[in-house]
Amino acid sequence: MKQEDVTRKCIVTGKVLEKSALLRFVVGPEAVVIPDFKNKLPGRGVYVSCSSALLHKAVSANLFAKSLKQKVKPMENLEQVAENLLRQSALQAISLAKKAGALITGMDKVTEALKKDKVAFLLEAKDAGDDGRQKIMHLAQNTKIFNLFTSEELDQTLDKVNTVHAAFLKGEMSKMISREFAKLVDFLNA
Fold first, then answer.
1. Considering the entire predicted model, what is its pTM?
2. Where does 3-76 sit in CATH, by number?
């Protein structure tokens, strides 16, 4: 594959990055800029680094119109829509991991998987109690822990009750999910 097939330029920073590190937008009906994070929509894409701050700058400085050299306007609440899409994609990845058998939930099962070195990374509810958080952190050592969702969000996604700790088992599925989580983390923290 050619190098230009996998990299694109961020319209805010001017940096050329891997497409996976960027958010794609296209012009939809009525010259409105809309997200196309799945790269499925037709039309010329414009890219912004995966950062809420940089997306805000692209919107406020009218960089979509400048980059496309045409009169366009971002969809209403574009930044919130982008965050919601990234969150939804990450939650769908969790559901997929459950269906594939690559996800373990519950303190006892997560603890056992950590002891057996089967865990690629952990997901802990943002509203987890300090006692459970400390226990997991002690066991996890060098294992990455994501804190992206509330236990209510996890319960809805997994169709369970009181989901606080989840372990993703080592394998290709976990690599894909980790990328989804990292993209959301980048967007929220950058």
1. 0.90
2. 3.30.1230.10
